[in-house]
Amino acid sequence: MEYLEGYVIQEKIGEGGMGQVYRALHRRLDRQVAIKRLAPQLSHNQDMLKRFLQEARLQARLPHPNVVSIFDLIENEQGVFLVMEYVEGQTAKAMLEGRERLTLPETFAIAEGVLNGLAFMHKNGVVHRDIKPSNIMVSKDGLVKVTDFGIARLVDEESGLTRFGGGIGTLHYMAPELIRAGTVSFSVDIYSLGATLHELLSGSPPLSGTPIWKS
User: Catalytic annotation on 72?
Assistant: First the structure.
């Protein structure tokens, strides 16, 4: 992507199955932002478009220091874009690369930040469903922020549960009930955080291979 009205595109900083993420400068505000672009080949896929728009709406309702902020949602002839807070730092996954494990103080700081973010999400009825090292940003100042709400869901206020079809998520960090595609509560995020902390402290997730879950 070379141009988006109102922004100076500076560099691509990430890429995944749903699209690319760019660092950019908001011209009028002189502010660094991150812009997530839905992959052009998916922009006409109604399921993917719905998921992308839901990500923006859920993240926008979560103003919290430990959650990456959403500034804008842009839809034009170029495609669909999320304009987000730019966090200068690295993911927990990147922090672990080339090391056997993180230190206890590093891990405790990440745990505290993610738990604070999750507490606010859950209070507002949102379950993230994909907590893992690559979805946790740590700024240069040490501030921890949860990102990537691409498969987040609202939980029913009365039952505290939600049901969906298909085991969507990242296998090594998914709670058993999430893999079985049954009812999902806020506890799936706590399980995923536990698996994440295990990896940060030991160098590998608690489970490997292809698990077989029995009802």
Answer: no
